[in-house]
Each structure stands twice: as C-alpha cells, then as structure tokens.
Amino acid sequence: MPEQLSRLDWRKLVVTAVLFALSILFLLPFFWMLVTSFKIENDVFVYPIQWIPKQWNAIANYKEVWFGDYPFYVYYLNSIKVGVITTLISCATASLAAYGFSKVRFKASGYLFVIVLATYMVPNQAILVPQFILYRNIGLFDSLFGLIIIGSFSVLGTFMLRQFFMGIHQEYIESAKIDGAGHFRAFWSIAMPLVKPAVATYAILRFIWTWNDYQNPLIFLRTDKLYTIPLAMQKFTSMSGEFYSLIMAAAVSAIVPLLVVFIIGQRSVIDGIALGGVKG
Amino acid sequence: MEQPAATPLIAEPKRGKRLTIRNNETMAGWLFVSPMLIGVTILVLLPILATLALSFADWNFVQGWNGIHWIGFDNFSKLLDDPAFTRSVRNNLVFLLAVPAYMIVSMVLAILIDRYVYWKGFFKVAYFMPYISSIVAVAIVWQVLFQPSYGPINEMLKAIGIDNPPMWIADPKFALTSIIMITVWVSIGFNLIIYIAGLQSIPRDLYEAADIDGANAWVKFARITFPLLSPTSFFLLVTGIISSFKVFDIIAVMTQGGPIGSTSLMVWYLYDQAFNNLKIGYSSSVAVVLFLFVLLITAGQWIAQKKWVNY
C-alpha cells in the first residue's frame, strides 16, 4: 500500500482536486434540480439550501407532472415517436446520399455536393418563415409527421457519414460489382456494415438533438397534445408559474432519458463529436 | 465502373458497353442522392430563395397572397433606422465575447484533463453534462437559480455579505451578461472534447525533445501545445462565432429578448417580427442581414485560415 501511495503523483492529485471542485459548478445545478423535484413547494427556497429534503414529496410531484393537467406521458410518447422515426429516416437519407456522393462516380456529383453543403451555412432561423408558409399550404403544419419530415434531411449527417464512406477502399465496391452485385447490394452488404459504428454515432447524436429540439416544435406545432418534451416544459413552466418543485420534476423527466442514452453511448458520442467536430 | 486509365485503342471497340455502364453509374448516383436532394431542395433551397424574395416585400400572414407589395430596398433602409434592430446587432456583437471566454477555459481544462489528472472519464462526462441536457430544462433551472429576490444564488451572495446582489436576468444591465455566462457554462463541454481530441493528435516525441532541451512547462505550452492546437482553435472559433448568431432557445425561454430589449439578438428579433408582429417582409430582411453576417464570417475564415493556422 505505501508503495502505491508513493507512486501517486502529488501534483496530479492537486490538479484532480481543483478540477473536481470546479466540476461541482457543472453538476450542482443538476443536483439542485433533482433535490428540488423531491421537495414540498414551501421548502424550495428555504435558505440555507436543504440538500437533503426535510419533507419528501417526490411521488406526489412526479404524479402531478406525469398525469396531471399537463400529462407528461403524452409528451414523452410524442418525443419518443418523433425522436425514433426522425433518427431512422435521417440515417437512411444521410447514408444513401453519403454513399452516392463518395462511392458512385457520376458527373454531377461534385456540383450537387457543393450545393447541398452550401445550404448548411444558412442559419436555419433565416428560412423559418417560408418553411412555415409551405407547411401551412401542404397540410404538414401542426402534425408530428411534419415535424419528423423537417428533421429528416440532415446535411451535417451526409457530410459526416461521407467522410467515413470515403475511407472504404473503392476496390471493395468494384469487386462486389464484378461479382455481379449492383450498387444497392454493394451499399447494403459491403459499405454499410463497414461504417456501422459511424452510423450508430450519428444516430445517437441525431436522437439527442431531436429530443432537445425546441425551435421546430415551437414553430410547427399548435395543438397541446402534440407537444414534445422541451416545448411542453416551457408551456408547463409558464402555466404553473410558481410551482418550482413541479417544474423541476418536469426538468428531471426531460433530462433523464438523454442521460441514459448518453451514458450507454458515451464513448461513441464523445468520439463522434471529437471526430466530426459537429455541433447541434 | 469508369476506367479513366484505359487507352483509346482498347476503349474503342467497347464504346457501346462503356456508355451503358456510365449511364448506369449516373442513374445509380442520382438514385442514391435523390432523397436527400429532394428534401434539401424543398425544405431548404426553395425557402432560401423565398426569404430573399420576401425581403423586398411588405406583407403579413393575414393579408393572403394578394396583400404582397413589392417595395424594393425599403425594408433594409428601415432596418438601419430601427433602434430595436441595431440594438439586436449590437447585442450579437457583445455576445461574441462568450466565444473566446469558453475557448480559453476549455483549452486550459483540456490540457489539465489530458495530462494531469486521475479519473479522466469522470471529468469528461461531468463537464459535458450541460451540453447534452435539454437547453430548455437548463434555461429553466438557471432562471430559478438566478431568481433575484429569493433565488439560491442571490441568497448565497447575501450570506457572504453582498447586500445588493445583481438582479441578473431581471436587470437590463446584467441580463445579457447572465445569458453569456450560461452559454459559456453550456459550451465548455463541447469545446473541451474537441480540444482533448486535438491534444491527442500532437506527437509525444515533441515534448520528449523539449524535455531533453530542458524546456519548462510554459515554454512547452507556448512553443508546442498552443501552436499545434491552432487548427483546433480556429475551427472552434469559426463554429463558435457562427453558432453565436444562431442562439435562440435560451433567449426564447429565459428572457424573450427583454428586459427592454437588452437580450434581443438578431435571431430573436427575426422571430419576434415574423411570428408575434406578423411582419413577414420585414423579418425576411432581418434574415438576409443575418445570412450576410454568416457569409462574411465564412469568407473571412477562408482567408484567415491560410494566414494564421500552422499545420
């Protein structure tokens, strides 16, 4: 034991301690949120802060949030529906396009790719109004389907996956075609298995972004029962005004599924972000 | 498959076949990219053109298509005289300060986490938490924490002897600063991860060589780490600046641009004009200005990259 201790670098220990103290700044708001969601309303702003609730009200709080006037289970189902389907379609369109732009040699490829990529530069808020008018006119406004469609064509995803498809040797594709396979076979049986980890990373990121998306539901949904979690949270907050314990219970409910997804896919999320340098 | 290296002599007799193969390739190519292409054309390209067109119009939703009046550059000249708009632009420029702030903190943290700590994994996840959390939930939590009269932060400040703590997001002088602080808090995780990736691509033997020459920690930072991180820093600076022009959620949830316009950013102003005031033409001209800003930054990036970045 003493040997092990002496091998501990004291400098490293000090830095670890300092960074740990600093990380409290990042974790404490989440902890406060969690603790508050367990309290009775009267104890929320008691100072000094009760880090362990004196009176537990967890079950009643969560019951109110999940099955009360703003039933979160409805918004959960909406968010899951939109999150899962958007992720699936987006992965499909992005990987098809990524393959097309990297492994099929056709004349217009270069121009088309530049055009698609250039649209990424435009801040999405700049085109909200025409999108809104379009949606009103083609009947996609105020529907979950419309919300799914708006998130299903990701230029960023195409760009990210294309990088990985380019890493596959063209010979693999060529030899599959010599064996009589068409491009679609080559895509599905050869290229896709090779880039599976990249697609998984993109899928997790897309799910997180869709789950957290506030702006699109705000613009494209009107009906209460179609709300996804972030929009529902904000409406819930402006409605229930002073009931902070309930608001925090809602916030915890909104964050926990993401935390689960993140912890399961932690490595691929962090590596994926580092690799692609991508930003929601 | 195309075979560009094939000599004409061999290619000649096969001409017919090669043409069909090429046609098949073209066909396959278009098929693969067409779902994305159709989606992007309808949902992005056409709206971009529509925004450009509408920026020359005076129109609101309720009037119907016949209510459009084409007024040339009037919207843009009105923007210049609109104090609420110029204030939003100014706020956007102030907001840029968040970018170097979180970049510096992230770089220092990344260097420390990469070399000098135990439990790397814990720190990566801890600092990353705000980034993956729903920004709406985060904004609401901070709104409560910053509550001026009985929120936990001001209670703590009072407890350590500050009698008149700032009113934070309720005070026009402090609101933008508060939002910037929260943005820094949220953005550190992302920047940290990218910096750690950048650090790991620096060859270790450079540091070993420096050690042999007796260089101290500062010299190693100034001569090796900082210059070799410059592509990463540059990438983060550009994406950071661009994303600062897209900040919307946190404003919409926490302040709605207020109090008295002190946190109105261009994107918020655009949204407010379009969806609260129903001035479609006017808000489209804001969108065009916003787009021009982003275009300028991107163009600037191309020029600057050649000059300042060491590879």
UniProtKB/TrEMBL annotation, chain A:
Species in which this protein is naturally found: Cohnella lupini
Family the entry assigns: Belongs to the binding-protein-dependent transport system permease family.
Cellular component GO terms held in the UniProt record: plasma membrane
Residue span(s) of domain ABC transmembrane type-1: 76-265
Pfam families documented for this protein: BPD_transp_1
Subcellular location: Cell membrane
InterPro entries on file: MetI-like, MetI-like_sf
Gene Ontology biological process terms from the UniProt entry: transmembrane transport
Topology of the protein relative to the lipid bilayer: Multi-pass membrane protein
Protein known as: Carbohydrate ABC transporter membrane protein 2 (CUT1 family)
UniProt main location, coarse: membrane
Stretches that traverse the bilayer: 12-35, 73-99, 111-133, 145-165, 186-209, 243-264
Keywords, in A-Z order: Cell membrane, Membrane, Transmembrane, Transmembrane helix, Transport
UniProtKB/TrEMBL annotation, chain B:
Membrane-spanning segments: 27-57, 93-113, 125-146, 174-197, 226-245, 251-271, 283-304
Name under which the protein is recorded: Carbohydrate ABC transporter membrane protein 1 (CUT1 family)
Keywords annotated in UniProt: Cell membrane, Membrane, Transmembrane, Transmembrane helix, Transport
Stated family: Belongs to the binding-protein-dependent transport system permease family.
One cellular-component annotation, GO: plasma membrane
Pfam family, one: BPD_transp_1
Source organism phylogeny: Bacteria, Bacillati, Bacillota, Bacilli, Bacillales
Domain ABC transmembrane type-1 span(s) in chain numbering: 88-301
Subcellular location: Cell membrane
Organism: Cohnella lupini
Database matches in InterPro entries: ABC_transporter_permease, MetI-like, MetI-like_sf
The keyword 4Fe-4S is annotated on this UniProt entry: no
GO biological process: transmembrane transport
